[in-house]
Amino acid sequence: MKAEPTRRTVLASGAGLAGGLAGSLALGGCGEAPLAGTLPGTLGGADWQRGHLLRDGKLPEPTGAVEEAGLVIAGGGVAGLAAGWRLAEAGLADFTLFELEDRVGGNARSGRNAVSAYPLGAHYLPVPNREARALRHMLGQFGMIVGEDANGAPRYDPYQLCADLEERLLWRGRWQEGLFPSGGLPSAELRQRAMFEARMAQYRALVGEDGRPAFAIPMALSSADADLRALDALDFAAWLDREGFTAPSLRAYLRYCCRDDYGSEPEHVSAWAGIHYFAARRGWASGEDGDRELTWPEGNGRLVQRMAQRIAPHLTPAHSVFAIRPGADGRPLIDVFDHAARRSRRLRARAVIVAMPHFVAARVAPAFAKAGAMAYAPWVVANVTVDRPPRGPGTPLAWDNVSHASESLGYVVATHQSQSADGGPTVLTWYLPLSRETPKAARKILMTRTLAQWQAMVRDDLLTMNPDLDGAIRRIDVWRWGHPMIRPSPGFLTEPARLAAEAARPPVVFANSDMSGLSLFEEAHYRGVLAAEASLRHLGHPFQSLA
Amino acid sequence: MDEGTVPEGGVPARAPAPLAIILLVSVLVVATCGLIYELLAGTLASYLLGDSVTQFSTVIGSYLFAMGIGSWLSRHVRRDAIGVFVRVEILIAALGGWSAAGLFLLFPLVGDFRIALYALVLAIGVLVGLEIPLLIRILRHRFAFRELVSNVLTYDYVGALIASLLFPLVLVPRLGMIRTGFVFGLANVAVALALLVVLRHQRRVAADALAALVVAASLVAGLFGAETMQRWSEVAFYQEPVIYARSTPYQRIVITRQDGDMRLWLNGNLQFSTRDEYRYHEALVWPVLGRVARPRQVLILGGGDGLAAREVLRDKRVERITLVDLDPEMTRLFRDTPELARLNDHALSSPRLTLHHADAFNWVRRAQGTYDAIIVDFPDPTAFSLGKLYTVSFYRQVARLLAPHGVMTVQSTSPLVAPRSYWTVASTLEAAGLTARGYHAYVPSFGEWGYTLAAHTALSDAVHLPAHLRFLTPATERAMFDFPPDMARRPTPVNRLDNQALVRSFAQEWGKYEG
Hints:
The complex is a heterodimer. Chain A has helices spanning 4-10, 17-37, 48-55, 78-89, 133-141, 187-205, 226-229, 236-242, 248-262, 271-279, 301-310, 358-364, 439-448, 451-465, 496-503, 521-539; strands at 43-45, 67-74, 95-98, 110-112, 117-119, 125-126, 145-148, 154-156, 167-171, 174-177, 293-294, 315-316, 319-325, 333-338, 343-354, 376-386, 400-403, 411-413, 426-433, 473-486, 508-510.
């Protein structure tokens, strides 16, 4: 009985998430919380106290002399680390990366307990396309690509490709392989699905009049043909309606995909972005590995950790870059607050790569960037430590486990890659994008809910999917993301602020996946590499382009 | 107080005929039921705990002793003997009726099963011990003492005969132990209800009748739910008495024993039977050791029961065995339990053996050094997680640990039941850059069983076998490499981490076989 109201919040349907969340918030006062409060766990998230200090202009003016600096990277997420990696590859020695948090890694950060490492956010990387040259170069360096086949296609390390079974779906009380429901569907719905697949295959193969693929990753390499760009004018749901893709099972699957990659409802994303999800992946690998994914127990934490290792001497965490302004001699002035020493410094840099989310960059460097109309999708990620792996009727445990009936995106199994044991403890990483609510309202919910309330919600959702886990949950650690993902809203391709950021030239350039409108590792990496190469050119440092 | 002068239990001096008859019939019924519960407890104890002579004698001894306590306690029943008798019947019906089902269900759940067993035996014994003295007192006005003792004891002994004949000949084979308990519980409650019906005009019977009906209803429900309970109770799953059962974080370990045949089950899958495990283990170990000139370093992956290690230790050329098993509980069990350690000749305590508790999937990736012989003895690939231990990636790592002249063997499921799965192992070893040769042996408790030899170089026919083996001779060894057409090699995919071809074909082939 007690669990019911929170379960309803997870399953919140037409009424919207806010109503459900508010409902269980009220319940938090009358006995719901202690039930889950007996579970150990922590409530974490991006350090928004530091973020808000910056937002509210509460950081002190620098004192002391202006210091001379080489190249500065402001922000240690994937784009900033990729920029740093690129600079190190080119042999540039004089650069510093400032990160506001105590740890670099951005969305790809990870945690670890006695049972396993686990992701706090992004958890896999699809095998990159042929056009993602710099990324492939890096994966080779990190031992993730182990060679080439006779056709020159990269061979990926089998231990790092996601092991079978990749996905399973709980559909009408049974687990089945794959994420699209099978069995018991009217043939008209199955036909629509086949037609949708065929349409996406067409788009995948389509080359624009400019000779570029219709949809590419990095997205900047996509065709600029007007009829393709026109897709950006309407939202994905409207496009699906227009094209007659109305079957409920298909729409449920597409909604899952949209929320999985963009943290947003199909109604809120551009049709261009919605199609990009299905039509842009042409993973290039030896044999049949092209459509597979790379993953690790700690998710993309592995990738950021390897990048950070490469540039370890250049990393300066717990430092907020809070102002970037043009200097008198053309060299930018950068104000940095040191959170440990609690004082600010001013640097005069030869160049700066602003690798912060765009909404922060616009505040820090108003002379160079406009805020624009960018929205971010908030998320909750919970890491659930369990005594035994989940089971359930039908297909056995997969890496990614999704329930058709749940508002959450299900869970991935952290030890999927690293264990062969059919038992023993593991960590399940559970994902929920707060996509039904406006981002602002969702962020309010993020900040006000207690750990016990989140834990109750996660536990109820998990036990609904896997009643076999009853009594096996040891702890639930909850991580909140306020602005993790840019939302590719309709019109994002022509968004002036985005185009201005793309067009910026050294000494102040930008690097983040917001510039792509798609919160993907590949996009952040590409933007980091581009910014690094533009800066190297500006500094007159020789290099061979990887972009 | 002199019982002779005070009428008891509201029984009038001239009781109506039906009561006397019911009471005499009930002597027969309670005697039968009493012995049935005793037999149930004894049989259950020897079934679940093994060693039937000890279990039977201690259970029957405790039961008789408890009956003595009951008889002695009957003196404290000073009035209303018939009311007390009715309630005793209802209690016996509940406890005795549920005894078999309860003990079966409790067995896997409780730490010390003996405590539950003897507590129940004592409780039922005390209650049964109360019955006859109370009945004698109730009936004493109906018969002369000479007749009374004769009647009661006659019915008592006849009941015992009925019970002891019915139990082995009809009840256990036809009804099973769980249903037998419920049926005789219903007999007890029927006695109570019959008495309540007869007495309904002389006393208030509502509360007792309600209790009796509730117990009767629960017994009827139990009778019809017995099938489901058998399924819950894993004990019923095994054909043989279970002597050990334990859940570790990794698996459910169960050991059964019958007529000197001990069997190990992991998650319900048979791992060995002491009757024929020598065939399995000789065929696993000696084709490898017999093909290596100087097997000094031997690696065993899996095989926490120590039986493969026992075979290897017989070879005095072997200097060191490294054994990697996932489950510490498993190796502890087979090292520290005298009866089980005898099976493997205390191999797990040998100074020549080093034990690692690790997931072999990870262990082989980190391990350094090389081994002259490697024995891979994992459970069948019934799950994606286990299927990883049969992939080309895994075998590449194992091949790295195999000395240039070394030989390895892989337990590879049945080539008769699952030929495609069986030959997938060979194809996968070949894809990992090794030469592979399949062979098979007949192990009665498994059926026709398959293994695969692999090496960096060609695998020769020449094999050196020790003389003391029970199954393998040079001639039978040679014959193992010959496959008749129904098991002959066929084209198969390579099993990879990202296709798990083996798990899929294994499920398909065994699924067909098991229907």
